[in-house]
Amino acid sequence: MRHTRMISLAAMVAGSGLVLTACGSSAGGGPAAASGKISDDKIVLAVLNDQSGVYKDLSGPNSVEAVKMAVEDWKAKHKDDAVSKNIEVVTADHQNKPDIANTKAQELYDRQKADIILDVPTSSAALAVATQAKTKKKVYINIGAGTTALTGAQCNKYTFHWAYDTYMLAKGTGGTLTKDGGKKWNVVYPDYAFGQDMTKSFEGQITAAGGAIGQKVPTPFPNDNFATYITKAAADKPDVIGTMHAGGDLINFVKQYNQAGISDQIKLAVGLMFITDIHSLGAEQFKGVTFTEAWYWNFDEQNRAWADKFQAKTKTRPSFAHAANYSAAFNYLEAVQEAGSDTGDDVVAKLEGKKINDFFLRNGEVRAADHRVIHDAYLAEVKPASEVKEEWDYEKIVATIPAAEAFKPVAESGCSM
Amino acid sequence: MSAFIQYTLQGLATGGFYALAALGLAVIFGVMGVVNFSHGAMYMLGAVGSAVLLDVADVPFWGALVVVPVLLFLFGILVERLLVRWLLALDPLYNFLLTFGLTLLIVDLVKRRYGVSGLPYELPAGLEGRVTIGGLSLSSYQLFAAFFSVALCIAVWLLLTKTRIGMIVRASTEDAERTRALGINVGRWVTPVFGFGIALAGVAGVLAAPFRAITADMGSNFIIILFAVVVIGGLGSILGAVMAGFLVGLVEAYGQAYAPSYAQVLIFVLMAAVVLVRPAGLFGREEAS
Q1: Residues of A with Cβ-Cβ distance to B227 under 8 angstroms
Q2: With an 8 Å Cβ cutoff, is B124 touching chain A?
Q3: In the predicted structure, residue B223 carries a pLDDT above the cut 90
Q4: Residue B222 lies in a domain
Q5: In this structure, what CATH number is given to the domain that contains residue A390?
Q6: A58: which chain B residues are within 8 Å (Cβ-Cβ)?
Q7: Per its UniProt record, what PANTHER family does this chain match (chain B) (predicted)?
Q8: Do A259 and B279 touch (CB under 8 A)?
């Protein structure tokens, strides 16, 4: 009897984990500087992301490096006419938890005098930071999170969304594959907010392109045994099986999918995937998998040149999140330069409506109406190991989705600032 | 109907793997009375170990299946000698907390060294295909893993119940004083048991490497299912762990097929039901406390 009691105790301890409750004080600290000046005589860029958990490799510390690269390049470009030579990059770990993100964002804006917060993966955490940006009237450029709410129902004047969102992923993968003949889909998704949103977005795009989702199979999250889910999803022989899993669950899914002996007949589409996922599992396991990329390092010479500089610093190739962090930081500094001020309102005014063409943003535009940054997106397919010519050379870009089509039209965004 | 049989087969294959993974937990508890929370971390070390061996020394799957358990056996002995044994005399809760702490430490060290995205691993040569009979089919590897697991479970059961070594080990833990009086060096026999249990977790880890994500966190979720298996089977009962392994595998497969969102919850519903009806588990002995 005693042992059974011990086990329930064990289960309790394991279940509760380490719950960190953070109670953030919401004492408002408004913008300190008057218009037309650099506050505190310095520009502070803060990267708030996952420095130790599941999103560490796809963004994490290397995004901080990317932002530092942007600062150096920007200083080199402007030299003596730079609006300020005093530029700092600070960083914090939000552990993908919205309450911690909320507290850290306040700390960064107030105590560390951050003028902008960058990155912030995990949708719930991203939305928490958007609220802080709005309250403190300071710029926030999100890169790592996928939710369209940032530029939709919960949009605000100080929040921008730079790289991707769930609509773009669904449009690229769901829309394009369906148009190319994959009419009959089954979708396996983790049963929580992200998985449900992605499935909804995909369904919209697949239906619009003339296809249909037959089975929608929810799975627990996290989960490591997918064998029977895969058998079930393959049973009625769809053209495409879509998975909305990410990280470790995605790797479990793909490994078991390959062993299910169906990869020759049924195409596998992945909702959200980063090049770091392919690197960790090996190209052979992912071969033939289709997904949407916001940017790929080996797409052309321009991308490659930047990727080489990045590799010299970090000894690894960049994911799109790394490139986007650089692009966002660099263009933020450009806007500060144009405005001659780092005050939130002044910088926002310069960013809104700006058309940008850099190595990350192709045909880019910062949409003024909802602050969605639009740019070309890419439908990518993973090469088989035999075609991989060098390390990290995993992807073949099969289609470019023009900026104007890749993202949700303003009329549908539901944003009012 | 054929779909149902297919799900059943898959459930049994998963079940064999669960049985093996839970076996070490049952052995350590049955013999030493230690609730080893670090079992999930040791399982992870088994998988990470085989990936690292492949990467740095080109040791293939079959080599890893031998080398990794031996290394973990030695590591287990070290942990027992340096840590676990000092708390054996105290309430079992102390060793539970110790191994919980050890888990956090091991997982974070692996994260520091190997990152969070996971390590690559391929299927072993010769087991890439599938075995198909009529409308039913299972991957060769899944089939191999299931049979290998069951064979190992039977071997361990025979070792503990039918051999002299097994008798000494059981006697040492039932009544250390009396066993010592019979001229047996008790301490010498208890330490290897812990190492042995850890080695079994390692074997499960090596088996998992080809079909599961090899990440530092892979054991964190898995250990909870393993606890469910040993509680359902009856703590410390080897036969119980094996039977419960299959039962949990089946429940999970049927859950995935017929009630997808509830597949994992069903395992714990089963556990709660078993504990309500038979608090000591299906094959556990009732103990007077």
Answers
A1: 7, 10-11, 14
A2: no
A3: yes
A4: no
A5: 3.40.50.2300
A6: 117
A7: ABC TRANSPORTER ATP-BINDING PROTEIN, BRANCHED-CHAIN AMINO ACID TRANSPORT SYSTEM PERMEASE PROTEIN LIVH
A8: no
